[in-house]
């Protein structure tokens, strides 16, 4: 591993050679999409999933910051960009879980040490999590309770689908009033 990395990679998904079967499958998809013609650059571009990662981060920031108006606008933008609501909810849940962990009593005071104690492969990501938790309008423990309630509403059918579940989660985490 490069000398400038703090530690060797521990992600087994990237520490092994590519799967020949998966490569054959992807080439087969490209061949089928271009049939009867040759595989072209345009076909390859069309087949690449177009996810807009930058839609997720402003949404996370606005939710954690308690800005309901922006969070709901970013939720709509992410929906239009083709982001899956369940994927965004999972990222929100993860952000809340890490914020609770970094703020928990008995944890190391240093967020990187807390990340290492949690077994994260990239413990450095805990520093921005701690910063977000410090500026959050709702305490991480309260965010966790609200997220659990929202998840329960989705799983018991009180919320009909993941898109509605995401809106429910955003509203619960940002509070009953706009821009709190």
How would you sum up this structure, described in words?
This protein has 180 residues and is mostly helical. It is globular and about 60 Å long. It has helices at residues 20-34, 41-47, 53-64, 68-80, 85-103, 111-118, 126-135, 140-155, 162-174. The protein is built from nine helices and no strands. It starts with 19 loop residues before the first helix and ends in a 6-residue tail after the last helix. The mean pLDDT is 81. Helix 4 (68-80) packs antiparallel against helix 9 (162-174), helix 5 packs parallel to helix 9 (162-174) and helix 6 (111-118) packs across helix 7.
In short:
By secondary structure, the protein is mainly α. The protein has helices spanning 20-34, 41-47, 53-64, 68-80, 85-103, 111-118, 126-135, 140-155, 162-174. Helix 4 packs antiparallel against helix 9.
> Which H/E pattern describes the elements?
HHHHHHHHH
Number of helices: 9
Give a short account of the largest sheet.
Answer: none
**Helix amount, in percent?**
55-70%
Structural class: mainly alpha
Calculate Rg over CA atoms.
20 Å
Mean model confidence by pLDDT: 81
N/C terminus separation: 46 Å
| Low-confidence segments | none
| Total E-strand runs | 0
Binned strand content: under 5%
Structural shape: globular
List its traits.
about 180 residues, mainly alpha, 9 helices
């Amino acid at each position: 591993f490069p000398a400038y990395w703090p530690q060797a990679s521990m992600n087994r998904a990237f520490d092994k050679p590519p799967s020949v079967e998966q490569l054959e499958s992807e080439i087969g998809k490209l061949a089928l999409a271009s049939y009867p013609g040759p595989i072209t650059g345009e076909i390859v571009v069309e087949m690449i999933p177009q996810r807009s990662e930058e839609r997720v981060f402003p949404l996370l920031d606005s939710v954690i910051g308690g800005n309901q108006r922006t969070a709901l606008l970013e939720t709509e933008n992410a929906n239009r960009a083709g982001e899956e609501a369940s994927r965004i909810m999972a990222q929100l849940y993860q952000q809340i879980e890490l914020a609770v962990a970094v703020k928990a009593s008995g944890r190391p005071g240093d967020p990187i040490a807390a990340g290492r104690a949690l077994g994260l492969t990239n413990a450095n990501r805990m520093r921005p999590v701690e910063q977000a938790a410090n500026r959050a309008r709702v305490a991480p423990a309260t965010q966790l309770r609200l997220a659990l309630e929202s998840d329960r509403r989705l799983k018991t059918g009180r919320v009909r689908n993941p898109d509605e579940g995401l809106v429910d989660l955003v509203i619960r985490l940002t509070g009953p009033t706009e821009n709190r």
